[in-house]
# Entry
Amino acid sequence: MRFCKYIFMLFLMFAFLNLSASEKFDYNLFDNLLNKYVSGNSVNYNDLIKEKEKLFKFTEQLAMISPDSHEELFPTKNDKLAYWINAYNAFILETIIKDYPVESIKDINFIGFTVWLNKNLLGGEKISFKSLEDDIIRERFKDPRIHFAINCASASCPPLINEVYLPETLESQFNKSTTNFINNKNNFMIDVNEKVVYISAIFDWYEDDFIEWLKNKHPEINNPVILDYIKIYYNETIKNDWYEFDIEVNDYDWSLNEL
# Structure
């Protein structure tokens, strides 16, 4: 069995080495799994585990190739970013599947949050979830919409969508995911009577990402605050007096995003 897996890995390696610069990384296998097992805000892990070998086959492909190892296959910024987003989401699913059933991703390691230090092989390099998010996705691309695209397999996390992120559709997918998240009352809500703004913890944890983006993209806004970012995607009017309301951060629900 180990010998067969070794041969398969060698086959993948030589296949990827022979890819021409005009070819694209193939996400079809992962896309099919997302289509089948992701619905609404949830993942059907119970059925996905029955096809876990397909997921493992895709992550083995990720292990062989990345924008860092084969830059010629990812000519644009969107090509690169789509890869890293899909890689993060695929390895999160793999992490859950390997320990399923679990009640929370934090249950996987002996000490809860250390799961983000778990390393996965991407393009021949071992990279932790934390490094993938912070050092690659956030640092290189500086687009706060990524926070609504990567999924942490938890109830309060922005939902995993049932399709892969592709370079040609990345902008529309990012905008849709961001809009959907912000217009969900679990993530942003105004209590006019109590004069309180309730926000997802994501806006608190990564506030600097949102503010720095506003400063770079909207220099006309003096001393931007998180409401200025939310305002861009909120379907209703953000009233001026709301800026004077107290802000309360919602508790984050780490229970598994299970169907």
User: Anything to note?
Assistant: Residues 188-249 form one domain. The mean pLDDT is 92. The radius of gyration is 20 Å.
